[in-house]
Design a protein that fits this description.
The structure holds two protein chains of two kinds. Chain A has a single domain, classed as Histidine kinase-like ATPase, C-terminal domain (Heat Shock Protein 90, 2-Layer Sandwich), CATH 3.30.565.10. Chain A is 34% helix and 32% strand. Chain A is built from four helices and five strands. In chain A, strand 2 and strand 3 form a beta hairpin. In chain A, helix 1 runs antiparallel to helix 2 and helix 2 runs antiparallel to helix 4. Chain A is globular. The model of chain A has no long low-confidence stretch (mean pLDDT 96). Chain B is an alpha/beta fold. Chain B has one domain: STAS domain (Transcription Regulator spoIIAA). Chain B has a five-stranded mixed beta sheet, sandwiched between helices. In chain B, helix 1 packs parallel to helix 2. Classes of the chains: A alpha+beta, B alpha/beta. Chains A and B meet through helix 1, helix 2 and helix 4 of A and helix 2 and helix 3 of B. Bound molecules: adenosine-5'-triphosphate and magnesium ion. Chain B: Pfam families: STAS. Chain B: This is STAS domain-containing protein. Chain A: InterPro entries: HATPase_C_sf, HATPase_dom. Chain A: This is Anti-sigma regulatory factor.
Chain lengths: 137, 133
């Protein structure tokens, strides 16, 4: 079972919010004692998802949580937007699929970089992506 | 607006990225570099990213663009000093940075640039095989 030790919400509405947000994620990762490689993977994943949230979701919020699963600590990030949603999730999760004339790496790449990945989306209502990176994950 | 300084050293341009790039900064760098290559008729571009702790797909794409555009304008480019954790993360993300030449540090990068320039000068009639290292 995963318990939340602390939680902080972050509002993301413009590009200038991204760097301070990334720094907050880094602080949270450092606090768990996470090594540099896992920190880098987590921050890169966060950077991809926050970019999607801005570009496709029109902005939103991210919850940064310190979590524990009984064995180790980790960082959970919950990205929520009230954008248009994603019609076909399995398509969106494929390497190379993009409606934004981009590389289509963000979602599938992020999934590879973290330990737990969950995406929920309803057309017309919005998208929520939850990831966890464990200290030694 | 913030800009990353571009140093001219003879035929080369040298860029040291000291901060984590955000989008506008990266895009400015892309245009500034292309303009500088044109203005100085530079033969090589060396980008030192040893202080950069995060490269996501957007920034990776900018680095790729800089390489491609330099090439079109007749300049070689090399990226030096990528942190091991950044390199490993890029691979897992799925970003291969094809077409971007890399070297361990500035010194090795300069060597690589010089040899690439020699190579491209030597076969300027019969070109188009700018393979990466
Ligand atoms: N928060 C979101 N709201 C609505 N659609 C989204 C959201 N996130 C992703 N998508 C959709 O899923 C597709 C795939 O996203 P992904 O991040 O994998 O690729 P990309 O953003 O298009 O390209 P890249 O991340 O490589 O620059 C996007 O093109 C977009 O259509
Ligand atoms: Mg994306």
């Amino acid at each position: 079972m995963t318990t939340t030790l602390s939680k902080e919400d972050f509002l993301i509405v413009k590009e200038q919010d991204v760097v301070p947000f990334r720094n907050k994620v880094k602080d949270a990762a450092v606090k768990t004692g996470m090594g540099i490689l896992n920190q880098t993977k987590l921050i890169t994943a966060a950077s991809e998802l926050v970019r999607n949230l801005l570009k496709y979701g029109g902005g939103g919020t991210v919850a940064i949580e310190a979590v524990n699963n009984g064995r180790e600590n980790g960082v959970r990030l919950v990205f929520s937007d009230k954008g248009p949603g994603i019609a076909d999730l399995s398509l969106a999760m494929q390497d190379g699929f993009s409606t934004g004339k981009s590389l289509g790496l963000g979602l599938p790449g992020t999934k590879r970089l973290v330990n737990e990945f969950n995406i929920q989306s309803t057309v017309g209502e919005g998208t929520t992506v939850t990831i966890i990176k464990w200290k030694n994950g | 607006m913030d800009r990353i300084p571009i140093l001219k050293m003879g035929d080369f341009l040298l860029v040291t990225i000291q901060v984590d790039l955000y989008d506008q900064l990266a895009e400015n760098l892309e245009t500034d570099l292309v303009n500088a290559v044109k203005k100085h008729n530079s033969k090589g571009v060396l980008i030192d990213i040893s202080s950069v702790s995060i490269i996501d797909s957007f920034m990776g794409r900018i680095l790729g663009n800089i390489g491609a555009m330099s090439r079109i304008m007749g300049a070689q480019s090399v990226i030096v000093g990528m942190q091991p954790a950044v390199a490993m993360t890029l691979v897992e993300l799925g970003l291969t940075l094809t077409g971007v030449a890399t070297a361990l540090n500035v010194e090795k990068g300069m060597e690589l640039l010089r040899s690439k320039i020699l190579l491209s000068d030597g076969q300027s009639d019969d070109d188009d095989d700018n393979d990466t290292e």
